[in-house]
Amino acid sequence: MKPAWRAADQAAELLAAAGGWRAAGLIDETAFNAMSADHPASGPRLGWIWRVLVFLCVLVGVSTATTIGFISFGVRSAGGVGLTLLIFGIALAVVTDIVIDRCAFQPTGAEAATSLLAAGYLCAAVFVLLDDQHLKGHEALRLTLPWCAAVFALAAWRWGFRLYGGVAALCVLLLTAQFAGARLSWIAVAALIAAWATVTRATRELAPSHREGFEIVRIVALAAIYAAVNYYSVDNGFVEEIGRIAGAPRRRAGEFSLLLAGFGSAFYPLAILAWGLRSRDRALIAVGIVAAALSLTTIRFYVHVAPLWAVLAASGAALAGISLLLERWLRSGVDAERFGYTAAPLYDEGRRERLLPVAAALAMAPAARIVPGERPGISGKGGAFGGGGADGSF
Asked: How many CB atoms lie within 10 A of CB 334?
């Protein structure tokens, strides 16, 4: 990431935090203006609706142009297609650099589309070129997955796209499943990735987008560990199925493996939840809650207590009730706080901004807007043209 992009990323994070502090009443307008003057925005910022539209237009347009180019120039051989995709991928990477630089690191949607196409073309190019060399199946995957992991990791580090880091981590995990001892290797590599991401994201020199990218990498790694220790996953050999050669017999888990999986399904979510509560990390708390819900759902596949939809509905209702009781318990504490936890939406200006369109839509709904002094209903006045109150004038 260029120094100018890093500075723009840090300024955007600071201004967003300052806006939240101002909304929470922690700073006044003078302090906010001073922060805005010291860290001015690098340029105008498009709304998310416009960014989505630009993303879709660029994505569809470039994909269509690529397809038309293949047809027009008669590129049909695997080698020609792979080489063309490689060239297009490099060209789109250069275009992404130019767009981000010209827009001063302000998201427009175009750079997201070109970066996604660049990474996709580069990954597809290697797969097609390997197919041209008659390498297929596991041999091709063992060569393609490291390349894909490197491409997405480099894209995340260069352009600051957070999701690409998670895709790179997933590619590394899928690579480990292609070899013998897939489940143990999967758990070991995922644990190393989670530990590395936890330590690295705490580095102060990281740009905000890089820090959030490492957060996604950690979430992917922790989710991968749970996928490997879940009882249902072990019982059905999901991890082993990823690297199983076509025609090879399926591997069934032994009694000892299922016993360990039972302990893993029960205690792993609690361990993640305890880690999140101790470190006051909302992402870890969310991962722990989701893992616990999945473990409870897993029981339903082995102990039939009710239909699956009923179990899921009851679980959702129970979680909603627990959340309401927890919020009431926190608000009843001294200064609406207990043990350092609060139910107040601290610095959550972004969420309120996202709710503004919803509030506006509700306010403009026909049944939600009543003019003061006007009785509900329709009272026609017998206009000259027979309309409900029309008088023939404009």
From this structure: 6
